[in-house]
Request: fold
Amino acid sequence: MRPLAFVDLETTGLDPERHDIIELAIILVDGETLEEQATLSLKVKPERIEQADPEALALNGYRPEEWEDALNLKAALERAAPM
Reply:
């Protein structure tokens, strides 16, 4: 059986026209045993932080200083793709 991937995204709100992905996490497990095979967790630099929903930022624990070294979305997706 092929592996399964569980993907979690954190965003700056619910409207994809205005809000950004700010975190991407993936857990890859064996399709039969569900044993963890690999994990990845990446912070993604928001492009439209001024349009973010303050409640979403609070819920996600967003603090600008923790995102200073974050990847842009394209780079984050490129790192995640091989999983």
User: Anything to note?
Assistant: The chain has a mean pLDDT of 97. The first helix runs from residue 54 to 60. The helical segments are 54-60, 73-80. Residues 23 and 59 are 13 Å apart (CA to CA).
